[in-house]
Amino acid sequence: MIIHEHERFEAELRRLRPAKPPEDLMARLAAAKPFVHSPGSNTTAKSCRTKRRELFLRWFLPAAATAAAAVLLALWRLDAPLPNTPQKRPNAASIPALIADDIEIGRRLIATFDTVASLPSGEPVRLRCREWLDEVVLRDKTSGVVIEQRTPRFDIVPVSFETY
Amino acid sequence: MKSDRTHESPTSSDWQRWLAEHAPKFLLFARQQARSEADAQDLVQEAVLESWQRQSDAAPPPLGLVFATIRRRAIDLARSENRRARRESAASDPPEVCWFDSGIEDRERSQLIQAAVQNLPDIYRDVISLKVWGELTFAEIAEALDIPANTAASRYRYALAELRKRTKEVLA
To answer: A35, B58: Cβ pair inside 8 Å?
Structure first.
């Protein structure tokens, strides 16, 4: 019963129609149409430009970035040797064998210094440090080929450190 | 030749039709929110334009969005620094602005309902106005007023009962 009366009252309220706005307000609203259709007008052109820019930002930039990444990847793969591809080896028979008929092996002392450290037991120990450069020179006098190899090496020798 | 009109360019006739259909609802709601008739009309104009321009596809905005914008702008207006000046200008406005279209025989009834609605607390007045004259669903009202839909429905029931009580003599 109450529900029925509410519905009837609601219908009564709905019978009242909101008053029409004054003419001047309707004129203002009509004049202020937000998107005026005028092909080639500034509004339309601006809208098109905006849409094109949005399209550019949305699709072209990610696509360009992906393409650039793909090109870089392809270049990198071209430079790197393929894991399963057998390396082209020069034919051993076609290369004349080197004959090392002059070999020099030497070493040069680059630096020497001592330092003091402590053992875990607390006892002091002196470390004598030497920096060497080992050199190996192979020469093939016939072909004039010289192969040099230099390897740095450190010697660290603990010596007693007597305290008085 | 077919027009190259795009979707974002409503024709004048589209615009006029949309306004003719909905502007009365917007103005009624704005009149309930604003302190003066001038403010109400400004609210409608600003809210309609803002809502339409916020649409990404430029289709007519949802009615709930326009009502919500009217309400938000009315709150902003009330908080603005020149509130006193607006109140003074409201006092100089003609006091009787009829909210409804009514003939002579219905004038008394519509004035009574208008007075009753005016005297409802804001939270009830907003809901009943949006439901009855704004023709929104409770879901749309909830979105427009930023309240749960159940709250909108319960406020509506209360407002309806209260209005019925206040207008019983005339509408009985």
So the answer is: yes
